[in-house]
Amino acid sequence: MKSSGVRGFAAFLLVGAASLVDGRESTPVALETVVVTGTYAPRSAITSDVSILDDAQIAALNKTSVADLLKTLPGLLVEEQGSPGGLTAVSIRGGESNFTLVLVDGVEVNDPTNSRGGSYDFANLNPDMVERIEVVRGAQSSIYGSDALAGVINIITRRPGQGHSQRFHAEIGEDDYYTLAASALGSVGDVSYAVELTDRDDGQPVRNSKRDHDSANLRVGWRPSDAHQLRIAYRYLDGDRETWPEQSGGPRFATVDAQDKSDYTQQVFSLAWIYQVMPKWRSALQASRFDAQEKYSSPGIAPYSEVPPNAADTDFIRDKLQWVNTLALLEDVSISAGADFRHEDGESDGYLDFFGNRIATDFELNRDTWGVFSGVSATPRDSLLLQASVRYDEPDDFGGETSWQAGAAYSPTDALTFSANWGQAFKLPSFYALGHGLVGNPTLEPEKGESWDASVAWQAGNTLSLEAGWFNNEFKDLVDFDDELFRNVNRSKVHTSGAELQATWQPMVDVSLRAQGTYTDIDVKNENTKLTGRPRWTASVVGNWQINGAWGAVFEYRYSGEQWAASRYTGAEVTQELDDYYRLDCVLRWQPSPDWELQLSADNVLDEDYETAVGFPAPGRKFRFGVRFIL
């Protein structure tokens, strides 16, 4: 039996937010200098392991996808289906890709109706709309509830600024690639705004694999007084993609020349009210909605006994209401507490076609989850930061889940910092895993995780910084498909561990280097199973050279180790190891004035021939030419 007390307390907190009426003076939060992910309220520092890419780094790299940006960060393993039309998933520290919670401007965008258990397709994100990326590694359910088993990736779009500015970016490339982006940002009195529009076609660098999408983004802020802020955000995405079926052997081995096709739309809406009740009391109430629709069809994989032709028309909505209060009780201690309510509604109309016998796979599910949470951050000494949080979630049809997290960071000197974190997390079964008409299992239990990490960072002078970290994750009750029962079951237990190394070095005023390397060891307990798409070794080096006042260059040299991949083009599932590879990308830029810039980008300069999925070759050498205006 579920406890009505928790629901009553959560409802009281949420309704109580409406009673905040007394305004006091507040200091605006400078978001450029704080972290907003992995914490209930913006903070200048958190103990969790965090990586950040800012606007300048994103623009300098000039990548065609957000996934390529993420490859330059430690602990992230990117699984791609070879070319733009394929799915792109990101796992953190060896966890499943659906253990990564993805946020766009703080709103969760994982879709539990898809066949990947809620894994997010990063190929849908256009880097032109991204101002900042924050990645928090480790269990984060004590902050976000379900889904953040391995970590969180927060994609932050462009925010309003002072005055007025307009941006324009156009780029063309080989194989019919192009992207167009325009934005206007600024403020008028107490109102600030940001409007962005993009149009993108990834072309066809690999035969019969393509993707194009349009997107729009709107952010409006209003500060009627020093104590009150209102923020509204809306994002719209409309796209379609086409590629070879996953595990079909792709253009190299597929026995039938037929492609998966998908048309999709996504909408993200959020409304936030931030109120500085007193100088030491900040209250934030936010409502959000994520709406995803997709029409998908697949020809299956010949000889169709294991993967027959199939299709699905899915619709998913997640509504969330959250209230967070942060109080600075003492100069060195602050406490956050609050509650949230989440309603999820998913529907899928689909079928499998077994040699002319069409079997319905329809499902329709909904789920309500109430949560209450609290966290504390303390600096008992200037050299010591302590943080802890706890959360209780009460989802429909499942028992209550309590998640804990604690961390510490200690700096014995200005140049040296030690940190450690421990946390628990859980993930509710996806709607697809629970309800699919053929393989769904309504008796599935939540997946669980426990993680710890430790790191040491050394600032060796003004030009060199080094950091080394170690991590350990235990995941259990993983959802897997059972061939004998022909349905999803809880059974797997997976242990992942490894190390992450990072370094930044500025040997000269005009030259800087950023390097990272990750080692990941994955062990599936009591099973002879190889987890796919996760290389043991990855590394990258990013170099930036300001040649003179107008000319600059950036390069990224990347290594990805051997990884396991599965295919079914032979009529049965076969797992094989893909070769490791090296890749070099370069950007040359010319900025004759502060207002505009020309860029020449070369992807895969060495024309490396490699695969990230069996039979799916990565695009070869490709050139792009672009221009940016900032007025």
Task: Outline the structure in words.
This protein is mainly β. Helices cover 6% and strands 59% of the residues. The chain has six helices and 34 strands. The strands form five sheets. The chain has a 22-stranded antiparallel β-barrel. A hairpin with a 2-residue loop joins strand 18 (363-381) and strand 19 (384-395). The longest helix is centred in the N-terminal third of the chain and has 13 residues, at 4-16. The model is unreliable at 1-32 (pLDDT under 50).
In short:
With 631 residues, the protein is mostly beta strands. Helix content is 6%, strand content 59%.
List the helices and strands and how they pair.
Layout: H1 4-16, E1 49-53, H2 55-61, H3 66-70, E2 76-80, E3 88-92, E4 100-104, E5 107-108, E6 130-137, H4 141-144, E7 151-157, E8 164-173, E9 178-188, E10 191-201, E11 210-225, E12 228-243, H5 250-253, E13 260-278, E14 281-298, E15 310-330, E16 333-354, E17 357-360, E18 363-381, E19 384-395, E20 401-413, E21 416-427, H6 431-435, E22 447-459, E23 464-482, E24 487-508, E25 511-524, E26 537-546, E27 551-560, E28 563-567, E29 574-578, E30 581-593, E31 596-603, E32 611-613, E33 616-617, E34 622-630
Parallel strand pairs: 4-7
Antiparallel strand pairs: 1-6, 2-3, 4-5, 6-7, 8-9, 8-34, 9-10, 10-11, 11-12, 12-13, 13-14, 14-15, 15-16, 16-17, 16-18, 18-19, 19-20, 20-21, 21-22, 22-23, 23-24, 24-25, 25-26, 26-27, 27-30, 28-29, 30-31, 31-34, 32-33
